[in-house]
Structure formats: structure tokens, C-alpha cells
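Dear colleagues,

I hope this message finds you well. In preparation for our joint manuscript, I am sending the Transposase MuDR plant domain-containing protein (Dipteronia dyeriana) sequence together with its predicted structure, so that both groups work from identical material. I would be grateful if you could confirm receipt.
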Amino acid sequence: MEPDPSVQISLRVEQVFESAEKGREILCNYAIQEGFELHKSKNDARRLTNKCKGDECSWRMHVSSLPDDVTFKIRSITEDHVNRRRVMDNNEAATKWVVSMTSLLIRDNPNVKAKVLQTQIKSAYGVEPIKCKIYRAKRKELMMLKSDHVGCYGQLRKHGNILLQMNLGSLAVVGIDKLGVTSKFQRFFAHLMHS
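The corresponding C-alpha cells are as follows:
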């Protein structure tokens, strides 16, 4: 889920999250939005307790599971941060977060430079992840993109067989170029018989 930088995340006591994972994600986005790093003193299946890493700051939030053990609720939260100095190299901006923030940009332009991605994140979210996180995020997104394409090409024979079943007397051929151990897709040819 890519958060909208124009929408402010606010946290309050009694706020409910659909899962622990969703609560962690929203808390991570909140910490990045507010420009502080989290110290996770408790982080297990039933409770989350986070504090601000700033020395002078006493901000703390405690979240625990409801009786269904799926949904979570904020039980306590202190009001504001004492340390208002923004953390630019925020550790909350992990590779997973960077992937979710840049996936659309990478999908639209797979050749986009890491510096462009870094500048985009800095201007939109006020953090500047280190370059290795940007490169890692780009590599993960490109692998996802490649696996999507590989899966689609793998479906071509299936689609050709469906075409033949639905249009008796038609012809469907998948052209593949054998390159040693690997195969490379060449063409998909379909000739439909008029019924």
C-alpha cells in the first residue's frame, strides 16, 4: 500500500487495526511522516510497544490484540514528540517500504535511475534512504515485473488450447526459439476458421 503524502496519518487511543501487520505498516508510515525513528521494545504476535529513539523524547505507543487475536487496538499513546529534528536517513524507510513507494515509477520506467527514485522519495516523504536500499528495491520490483512476464508467456499454450477447443478447425501455434537449456518466445500465431 503506497501512502498518499498529502494525507496526514493520525493515531489515537482506541484506534483499531485489522491486523498486527497493518498496525506495523501504519506506524512505520506515521514515523516517516513525523520524521522520527522507532524503538520497538515489544513486537510480538499479541502486542506492539514502540518508543521514539530520540534521547529527550518520551513519546510511546502501546498496541495490543483484541480477544479475536486478529484485530489490534491502540491502548495508550503519548501526545507529542519533544525531539522535532527530522531524521532524513530514517531506518523505518526499509527496503520493503521503498519498494512500495517506488513500484509504480519503476513499472512505468524500468530504466529509471536510483538517484531519481531517491529524489522522488525525499521530496514526497522527507526521507532519504541510502542508495543500497534504493538499488535493492529496484531489483526486487524488476524481478516481480519479470516474473509477471514469465507467467504470462507460460499461459500462451493454455490460451492456444482454449482457442482450439472453442473454434474447431482453427490453428494456434506458439513459436519458441530453443537456445540450449533456455527457450525464448518468438511468436504466437492463430488462424480462426469461419463457422
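For the figure legend, we might mention the following. Residues 131-154 form the longest helix (24 residues). The chain has three domains: 16-77, 95-151, 155-191.

With kind regards,
E.M.
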